């Protein structure tokens, strides 16, 4: 068994102080990634600082063209939120596609984005929707947050408090899920911001990325046919027992076309 200390933080301030005092401590939110990681002996923190019950990290609110989601919001809360459904229905759709009911009732948006699994769904939403990650120390633009496989701009002791999204004109997400885990083999978020197009791809490469060539093509014509023959650099795409690189490249193209088709049928 592990010899570690479990502390249930009473506030973000207390959690910050605990992280500062114990450099080997780790935050625990929904535990859907961290607990299996501990079980497999892939991490050995000195302390688990539980922020999973903090009201300060909850809450979903939409006003003034901005949707704000607390980092401790569970996936099912995002999936079933009336505010999310009204402001950015694609985000509610995406949250409802994560894992299974158990995972959606425990896992949090903050935990998912901090973990930045290359096959996770939320990174595609945060990057595609041009979100801002607000931490206990600063605000980080999505374009500078994701640094590749399981890597982010978060520094030691930094806690994600909430996410802020400008409400786009329209957005749609399409995902081909792994049949066992539900994770994305390829997931594509297409966003018409009103002043441009953003396309974020998860699942296929070593981390979420913007498909700039598709953004340029869709900026001229928001039609699935506009993606025909568009360059997609796939030399670093994942190859494993589940799918070859070429298969993943094809999945990205198919998911992008499906997202554009969905988007064409939506007001938002
Ligand atoms: C069977 C299964 C299927 C899954 N399927 C999918 C899927 O289809 N799509 C998908 O996207 N994900 C999937 N997941 C992952 C799931 O969404 C997790 O909930 C998520 O990755 C982690 O969120 P959590 O709240 O459980 O974080 P935890 O496991 O508690 O923490 C994860 C990491 O984030 C850190 N952390 C947590 N909160 C914060 C914070 N506020 N600020 C800074 N750091 C923080 C922790 O220290 C830890 O390093 C699946 C998981 C399982 C077990």
Map the helices and strands:
Layout lengths: L4 E4 L3 H10 L4 E3 L5 H6 L7 E4 L9 E4 L2 E5 L4 H6 L1 H6 L1 H8 L4 H6 L2 H7 L6 H7 L3 E4 L3 E3 H4 L14 E7 L3 E8 L6 E9 L4 E6 L6 E2 L1 H9 L24 H20 L4
Parallel strand pairs: 1-3, 2-3
Antiparallel strand pairs: 4-5, 5-8, 6-7, 6-8, 9-10, 10-11, 11-12
Distance between the termini: 50 Å
How large is the share of residues in beta strands? 15-25%
> What is the multimeric organization of the chains shown?
single chain
Helical region count? 11
Which regions have little confidence, pLDDT < 50, spanning 5+ residues?
none
What ligand molecules are bound, each kind once? flavin-adenine dinucleotide
Tally the beta strands: 12
Describe the structure.
The chain is an alpha+beta fold. Helices cover 33% and strands 22% of the residues. It has a five-stranded antiparallel sheet with strand order 4-5-8-6-7. The longest helix is centred in the last third of the chain and has 20 residues, at 245-264. Flavin-adenine dinucleotide binds next to strand 2, helix 6 and helix 7.
């Amino acid at each position: 068994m592990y010899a570690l200390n479990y502390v249930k933080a009473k506030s973000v301030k207390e959690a910050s102080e605990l992280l500062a005092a114990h450099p080997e401590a780790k935050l625990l939110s929904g535990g859907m990634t961290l607990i299996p990681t501990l079980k497999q002996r892939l991490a050995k923190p000195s302390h688990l600082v539980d922020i999973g019950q903090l009201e300060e990290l909850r809450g979903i609110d939409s006003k003034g063209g901005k949707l704000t989601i607390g980092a401790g919001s569970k996936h099912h809360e995002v999936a079933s939120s009336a505010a999310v459904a009204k402001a950015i229905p694609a985000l509610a759709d995406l949250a409802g596609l994560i894992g299974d009911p158990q995972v959606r009732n425990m896992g949090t948006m903050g935990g998912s984005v901090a973990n930045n699994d290359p096959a996770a769904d939320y990174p595609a939403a945060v990057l595609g929707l041009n979100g801002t990650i607000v931490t206990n120390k600063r605000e980080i633009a999505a374009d500078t947050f994701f640094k590749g496989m399981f890597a982010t701009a978060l520094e030691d002791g930094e806690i994600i408090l909430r996410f802020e999204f400008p409400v786009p004109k329209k957005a749609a997400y399409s995902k081909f899920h792994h049949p066992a885990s539900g994770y994305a083999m390829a997931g594509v978020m297409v966003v018409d911001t009103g002043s441009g197009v953003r396309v974020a791809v998860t699942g296929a490469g070593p981390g979420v990325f913007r498909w700039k060539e598709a953004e340029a093509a869709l900026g001229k014509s928001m039609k699935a046919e506009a993606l025909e023959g568009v360059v997609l650099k796939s030399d670093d795409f994942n190859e494993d027992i589940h799918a070859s690189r070429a298969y993943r490249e094809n999945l990205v193209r198919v998911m992008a076309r499906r997202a554009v088709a969905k988007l064409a049928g939506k007001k938002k």
